[in-house]
Amino acid sequence: MNDPRIPPEAAPAAQPPTPQTPTPQTPPTPEPPDFLPGRLVDLLIRPTRLMAHVARRPCWWQVGLLLLILNGVATTWVTPIMVAEMREDIASRTLPGGLDGEALLRELDQTSEAVAENKLGAVLGNGLQTWAMTILLSLMLYFFARLAEGQGRIPQAMGIVHWAALIPYGLGTLIRLPLVMLTGQHTRVTFSAAAFLPEEMVGGRLFTFLSFLTEVTHWWGLVVIIIGFERIFGMRRQAAALSVVLPWALATTAMAAFRALFGV
Is the N end or the C end of the chain the one with fewer CB atoms within 10 Å? Predict the structure, then answer.
């Protein structure tokens, strides 16, 4: 029997809460520096990182200016070689109906004289052609990407295509230019399957189609464009490839056909 004189056993005193040791937070991975030389290196060896930068800052018009200057200077530089090849081509083959060989020769002479007299105007004219083609391709691929349910903005599409265009129209031009100047041939210097055709087929229709459709630097650039639409527009790789390669192939085939029929 409990003795009421004996106080009940005291309850244990509450223990102060044990301080929680804070879990060390892993610092976020710093973003790689975004500057022009780094982007150019990423374009060649790590295009996925390049497209991460392009998603935030497309910088398409800066690349467009670079393409304008580079291709304008290169095309103006080799214009005399191109004119000489075209004169030889006109003299050596039968022209399609409706084309006057003498009139074409006079136009070539006028073009050559205009380039010699106004080199700055020739540089701007030739460079603007390349830039305009790049802008048109950007808008066309953006349209097809949206049809394939890609999610992105026009400036991002412009950035994807402009940066990828530096491969055929930047790197390709820098490699071709000294070869053209050394050999004195413009049409023959190509990084396509047409380079393996015999000399007598140079400038023919098969040569033209192979030059347009199998150019290595163009396909390299297309791979970069596909990566860009996949990463930035959130597209599946198959959908991105189809929305890029199909319209490019159609447009390129049309240009090759026009060049094969009327390009003199």
Answer: N
Burial of 255: CB neighbours in 10 Å, binned 0-12, 13-18, 19+: middle
130/71 Cα distance (integer angstroms): 7
47-87, pLDDT tens digit by residue? 999 999 999 999 999 999 999 999 999 988 898 888 888 88
Decide if 76 contacts 122 (C-beta within 8 A): yes
**DSSP string computed for the chain:** ---TTSPPPPPPPPPPPPPPPPPPPPPPPPPPP--HHHHHHHHHH-HHHHHHHHHH---HHHHHHHHHHHHHHHHHHHHHHHHHHHHHHHHHSPPPTT--HHHHHHHHHHHHHHHHH-HHHHHHHHHHHHHHHHHHHHHHHHHHHHHTT----HHHHHHHHHHHHHIIIIIHHHHHHHHHHHHS-SSS--SSGGGGS-GGGTTSHHHHHHHHHS-HHHHHHHHHHHHHHHHHS---HHHHHHHHHHHHHHHHHHHHHHHHHH--
In the chain, the percentage of residues whose pLDDT exceeds 70 is 83
Q: What is the per-residue pLDDT for 253?
A: 92
Q: And the tokens for 166?
A: 């530096």
Where do we find the tokens 């497209």?
51
User: How many CB atoms within 10 Å of residue 125?
Assistant: 15
Distance CA 118, CA 138 (A): 31
Total residue length of the chain: 264
